[in-house]
Each structure stands twice: as C-alpha cells, then as structure tokens.
C-alpha cells in the first residue's frame, strides 16, 4: 500500500487509533452547538403546528396570542410570502409539489407548521403559541400506502398520489416472467419496513442573524455549512456570499440535516423580515413527530434460481410512503441500482413508486437505499433454506469475486474492485460455523433457539461529479511562520471526527506532530464548496484532497530546504517537524526556521518561487468508490417470550485504507446500533386519523447500551483507486445490519417456520406469531394489511403508448419541441428537434449542458422510437418510445438503470 | 418544550403542604422526584398553577418500623430504599421490584411515593403495594385517612387521591421471615415500563402455602391482584401445586390491552408463562433449601 512507502517522517499516523481532537471539548461540555449561540437582541421562535392530518384552514385567530407577554410578532405564510422562496430537494431540484414554509390554506399532516411565534424567550413563545386559535375543517386523512393508492388527493393540484415512479412494468411480462417460469426454484419475500424517526442526539436548530445590507450569518445544525449556505442562498434567490453558515458542533445528522428544511428556512426568512437575530431550537416532541421521517417501505422481491441455487432472474415491486412534504419526491431508484451489481444475476426488473400521504414527509436516512440489502439478503436466506443449501455456499455461487471483475451489472453499474465475496471468506475463516451448528443443534434439544445470520453488501461511497450537489473537495494547507500547520477544509463532523482523521493524514504525509496541526472546518467562510457528510464521502474525497495537498506542501518544503542547503531534493526528509538533509546532520532545521525564511526572507527562496509555505488542492475522485462487507450475527430467541438476545456480532468490512480504526469502528458500530433499533425496537406508528403515536422516547424505543453488543471487527482492506486508497464507511452498518440480524432471527426460528412476510420491527409479539404459527401480535386486526402478491399488478402504471388508431390524424413531428422527462431526481426539460425522411427519424436533444444528436430512429404513424447515448450521470443509452398525437407527444424513455421515465412534449410557445 | 408558567412553593411541613393544596382548589401539583412530572410539565400535558415541592418535608422521608409493619415515607428516593437494610430484611419483594423501576440515574431522584401516587398501570411500585397488602396514608386539611392499595387505583393515572390530598406514608404489613419472593417482568429494554409483569410473596407453613399476595402490572388499567390464583394456592402443599393451572387462573383475573408495543393476546400468553415459570422456580428453590 502506498502509505507505507514514504520519504517523510518515520512516525506513522494513518492507521493509528489517534485520540480524537474533538473529544476534549465534547466530553467536558465545551462543545459549541447552535443552542450555545447567544446574540444581543436575539428573539426566540416557537411554531404552531397542525393537530389535524388533512384539512382546510378556516381561520387563524392571533388576537389573544399577540397580547401575551414578550410576544414580538406572529407570522403566518401570508407574512413570510413577502420574501419568495422556492424550496428544493437534496439534489437541488425543485420540489414538485411546491412546499411553502408555513401551511398555505391547507394542512397536509399533523405537525405541519402553521404559525411562527417570535417572543423574548422560548417559554413565552410557547405560551403564546398555545393560545393561537386554529380552525381547521378536517378531512379524511390518507395514512398508509394503501390509502394513497385509493384515496383522494393529498395535494389537490396533482393528478394522483404518486410522488415519484420509475421502472418498467412491461419488462415483467416481456423479459422477467418467462425466465421465472422456467426457473426450477422461485422464491418470493415481502418486507414492510416501519417508519423511522431520525432522532439525532441534537435536534434541529437554527440561529439567523441579519447583518449589513442583506447579509446574514446562520448557525444551523447541518451536515455541511457550504451546502447549507448554497441551499439557503438558492431557495431565497440570493448570492451565496450573502449567507455565511457556521456549524461548529452538530450532534448527529443521518440525512435529516442534509438540507435546511421548512422550519430552518422560515427562521432565515423571518429574521430578514423582523430585522433581529432569531433562534429556533427544535424540541424532542417536534423532532419525533415533525422532523422528516425515514423508511416506511413495502417491497416484494421474487427471485428465480436454478437447481444449484444460481440466480436466473429477479423482479421487485417497491413502494415507499413519502408523506406529505418529502425532502424531494422519491421512488428510491438507488434500491434497484444497488440491489444486484455484486451478483451474477442475468436479468432484473422492477417498478418503484413513492406515494404522498398525510403523514410527515420523508428525508434521507443513513443508507437511504438500504432496503436493497435487506430484501436481497433475507430473500437469499429464504432461498437457501428452501433449497437446502448453506447460506454461505449460496452466496459463493452468486457473488462476483475480484478475479471476475470488472463487470457491468444488468442495470449498468460497473464494478471493478468490490470485495463482498473476499470479505465473506475472511469472515467465514474467523467464525467457526461448523462449531456453531453443533451448538445450535444441542441447544435446540434443550428448547433454546440459537440462530446465525450472515449477509454481504456493497455500497456506493464518495460520489462526486455524477449528480448535484456531490462534488470534489478542496483543501487549503499552510505551515504558519510559527512552524505549526493549519488546514482549512469544507469537511463537517456531526460526530465523524474529520478534524482528527484529516490531521492524521497531514501528520503522516508531512512529517509533523499531530498536535501541531489545527484543522478548521464547520464554516462556509472556510474552504471551498463541498457537500460535507452525505453519502459516506468525507474520508474518501477530503481524505484524498488532504493527502495530495500535503504532498504538494511537502514538496515545497523540500525544495526550499534543498535550495538553502545546496542539496538535492531527494536528499531532504521531514520528520517530527524537522527537515533533514541526508549525510549532513548539521543542516537540519525546524519547520519553524524554514517557515520564517519562506515568509520573512523570500529573497533566499529559489528564484520564481512564491513566498510562504502553502498548498491547495481540489480533488475530483472517480465518480463512485465501492465499499464491501460481510457481517455475521448470533442470536438467541426466547421461545416463551419472543425476546431476541444478540450474543455476538462480527464485521468484516473493506473500507480501503483505514485512517483511524477507532473512527471506522465507531461509524460501523453507530450504524449497527441504528440497525438493531430498526429491526427490534424503533417505530413511528400513525393512527387512522394521521396522528403520530410515538411522541416521546417512552414510546419511541431507541436502542440503548443494553441492546447493543460489543462488536468484533475484521478489517479486510484493499485500497481503492482514490488518492490514499480510502473507501467510505459512514452508512454501511445501517445497511448491512438489518439483514444480518433478521437472518439470524430467521435461522433461530427455522424449526417453527418461515417469517412469511417480514414486518418491522420484529417485536416479541411478532416473533411469537412465527413460533406459535398463530396471530399473537394482533396483525390480522391491523387495517393497513395489504394482500401480498408475488408480483403486484401496478395500480398506477406508467401510461402506455396508445396503439395508433389507423385513422388517427397526426401532424408532422418535424421541427422543435419542448420536451420534459420525469427523471428520478426531478423533471428535466430540454429542446427536442426531429427530422423525418419517410420512416427514418433523426434529430437532436438540446439543453444548456449540451446537444446530443441521434439518428437511426424510426417513425411509424406517429410512433417514434430512437436511442440517445449519454455519458452523464452514467454511461447509459436512453431508449425513447413516444407517440405523436396532434399537438402533443407522450410516451416513455427507458433509461437503463434509472428505469423508465414519462416523457411529454409540446410545441414551443 | 418549556413548561407553562407556574408558582413554586416549598412547604416545610405536611400541614403547610395540605393548606397550600387546599387553597389551590385543584390547581396545585405535588412534585417530589419529578421523574414523570417534569416531562409532563415540559410537554404541557400538566399545567398546574402551583408546584408544591415536598422535598423539604423531613417527615415524608425515610423508612421506619411500627406495629408489625414497615412504613416508607413517600419522598424517600428509590435509590435510598434500594440500599435500606430494614427493607432488605422485611420486604425483599419490594426491593427486587425497585431494582426494575426506571434506571440507575432516575432512581437517584425518583421517589417511592411518586411512583405509588402516579398510578401507571405498567409500573412496579403500585403492583407491589397491591400484592403485599400495603395501606396508603393520606392527609389533607380535612383530616387523615388510610386506603388499601388495592382500592387506591381507579384507572390509568387515576387514584382515589383528591386534589387537596397528599400521600404521607405507605405501610406494608410484615411477611414471615423466609417468605418466598415472586417477581418477573418482560420489558423491551431494561428500565422500560413492562409489557407484562408480576410481583408477589408466598408464606409457607408446614410444607403448604399459608399466605399469598400476588399482583400483575401491565395487565389492565390498574394493578391487578391475582385473586383466583391466591385462593388456589392457599393451603395447597408444595408438591400439589400445578404451576400452569395456577397461572391460567391468574391470567383469568386480568384485562390487558393492545398498544403498539404488544397485543393483549401477547400479554396474556406471555403473562401466563412468566407466572408459571416464576412460581415454579421460586418453589423449586424453596424445596431444595
């Protein structure tokens, strides 16, 4: 590995369990969180929220509340509308069902913010908020996905309750079903994943301070100050420089804090209107019931296998409950993109939909696509039991090992260096499975039910350059005249310890003491744009940027030293903050001495060299860097009570170069704790009227230290192709954890039967359902019960291209059209130009990003078929199949792994 | 999440506290450890005009012996009660149950009387008081009265306590030395309120059950005394006890409910099992000893 070979110091820092720079202040209560910000003249905000899930606001009575002590103002949407705001998704695309900061005439979920009370203290703001008289004409709420399929419209301006949809329903009949029909074994599995309340330790928080003429400093609990500043500036239509975002310490993000959402942006807008600093600190009740929720999915996967257990084809039908105001409408295409690239699966198809309901909107949550691993790994185990094949052996027959790569998946994902199989082998070598099976058999004779679960996964990390706002990272680095090192980064830690890991890289690559490095981050005025902690990327990209910037700085130091000592650059080494010249110990100087010359006596530098000791590097890594892992978990299920005890958990992960094993293991452990919560404990249920039922931590059961075992870690690391060789590790535990634990429980329950449909969380009552093969949990009584079909017929299919009626008058398609493609990350609009020559069709698609010519298309009675190859965001071929009908064109476009999107076009106005 | 405005008083005697409660006419709430009340205040689910802090009333604290019974002052911290030598000797069932009340940290602040007076149906202390036959002493400006624990609870968080009344003591009758402790609960996480739990005591004489007091928690709107099971056990020789049959009788007295953590059917099913398992284990230990 490259980091061993070094011309710099002998002291290694990369790979060490270096104590974290952040821990001193965090452990002694000296962290600087948003609520620690106190400004002169600052007022406090409390929101009045809708107690009704769906309805029309008849009146908002503010007279009594306005008279309360300390109240300065009460704003409704009518007031905030003075400053126009266009909210955007995490992908910086417009929210399709335009969400206002406060409710605009209607409420669409319990917790919808309706008024904003500004008072001298938070207590006074709450006193007044309690006296706002809301009259809402309540309408029947849509709570479940089943409600959304059949009920009235959540958003009256929409055609239906489908928030987003992708996939190709035709592919089932045309491609997949024939393969399944021929398969010797077909296994179907259904999972209902509960709704999760993200529950970071620190709830959301925002302080907005208007300054000067239109500038503003915003302290906000976020995952990247740069991204938050860019987001706020864009949604308000301001220059980004006018917004400075500071977030020194943040207690957990998980995706909830990817972008500032309604309440935070409302604070910014209100501060501009009110002209004084405003603070909003979300309380735990709001956090549980009114912060963007996560998950709530229903998915059915069917796989066909041959006699030996080799995969032949797979089809899945996925639905997720987006709630009323998601942070971007989402059909979770990533579930399908990443379900199978690590497997030898010839054919995969899917339909995937997100549905609006009158529940709190969904946001991203650590491994937002994690369902791909949960449904795949649990279905594979079900197949292993059905076929009587060992689960490890079944995976061996289907996984792509390193010698078989590179391979491009059926959905167009190219894998070049994934190692789930290698991780599995390392895991299996460490865990004595045969001994466990013997112990398991003995225990069963005593009425004790042990189970072992194994799962593998891959994860796309360090995304850059393929989609907004995922970019590279810039590092500014300098040796101060004092000889100390300062790094300015756009990284952000909500517990990640980026100041620690980046300082380790600098210390390692430069040859200075870790203690002599100061890392500045957490402020949009520091560094350059980077999206911070999102998509397991900081170690990969900022780590690579820091790695290279440090090497550039070391090169400059060596050049200066070589010049001053009249030696060759190759003869210079840096160690422990000292610069040495080989064979001339008397020429050793400290970095401080060199820096004093570089800054204060630049005439002594080589001719043409800039003064100072500084370096800057912006790293653009490969578009995606894959992380792999295999996990094993051992449980005991108490057959009398249905309780699960986790006895052992082993992780074998490949995250490439490990900068700090403690930080890596902390990331895995945190993700696994969330996984345990999701499988066994956590749930945000709603009643039929749309009331969230877990309003405190008495009812929302977070895993505690009693529920989370000590984990064992095997680091099975192969360096990636990035500078430094890191792979992202932020989300993995939360992705591979659930299937590992579910598989262990299913293995323990195998003597009793299968978990026919997995409903999470696996409460003790639901486990007794399996053990006793009867309805202990009362699931039959639940109204949201939906009949599981192996392959559910799509209820709201992608509109079919109408078979051309023979007499249908169709005009000419030649010339320009305004075409809209409903892509998974928002609609794309571009100009389409068609030229026909008999049945031949050619033309181009043109947008600000460029023009794509195409030829070789066909047109027959208005039905047009043509293909366009694109390179971004991935190399895919877009296959258009559209129909002209008078002045409009409708149809669809197959977009490889992105599934199928609706296409519409009209003549330019 | 800030409480609505309230006045705060810290009386020094029971009489003073009762006078304040009387004057407040229902607008006052007593605070001792605050482990339930503080969250309720912050959620504004409780909005008293006056908070009456009884932590300054010395006579409400401590454990004492009186006339064949043990008395616990209601403001005694749960952690102190757990360490108390008299309780360890006289009321081992209570001490066992106390170890399951909340968490280590909350027991440092939470009081025995607070848990008794709150009336959470899935909590350990009310069921223990019912099982052991405790009496709740109550004072007000109108006088003093004593209520059997079994008659103290009316429904979830509802007791016979009038707004002007204060719990001044909990008196547990003595159980014979060497009596058998029954305790088991099923909770999703340590420290949670139980999905289902049972607590009790059995006194033996000449190889048969001479006295039995057993109650459920989490099995109905109030702590539920297992009367039929007690009756079946009384006078029965140890060798003749059919633990499963007794457990079935015990469940017959309950009225559990569905919530999103567990169904009533789960509570009945598992309740019966833990009852039988606890009874069997307790009596096995006894017969070996």
Automatic annotation (TrEMBL), chain A:
Domain Aldehyde oxidase/xanthine dehydrogenase a/b hammerhead: 28-140
Spans annotated as Disordered: 1-26
Keyword RNA-binding: no
Top-level taxon of the source organism: Bacteria
InterPro entries: Ald_Oxase/Xan_DH_a/b (IPR000674), Ald_Oxase/Xan_DH_a/b_sf (IPR036856), Ald_Oxase/xanthine_DH-like (IPR016208), AldOxase/xan_DH_MoCoBD1 (IPR008274), AldOxase/xan_DH_MoCoBD2 (IPR046867), AldOxase/xan_DH_Mopterin-bd_sf (IPR037165)
Keywords: Molybdenum, Oxidoreductase
Biased composition (Basic and acidic residues): 14-25
PANTHER family noted in UniProt: ALDEHYDE OXIDASE 1-RELATED, XANTHINE DEHYDROGENASE
This protein's name: Xanthine dehydrogenase family protein molybdopterin-binding subunit
Taxon lineage: Bacteria, Pseudomonadati, Pseudomonadota, Alphaproteobacteria, Sphingomonadales
TrEMBL record, chain B:
UniProt superkingdom: Bacteria
Record PANTHER family: XANTHINE DEHYDROGENASE SUBUNIT C-RELATED
Pfam families: CO_deh_flav_C, FAD_binding_5
Keyword Lipid biosynthesis tagged: no
UniProt name for this protein: Xanthine dehydrogenase family protein subunit M
All residue ranges annotated as the FAD-binding PCMH-type domain in the record: 1-177
Record key words, sorted: FAD, Flavoprotein, Oxidoreductase
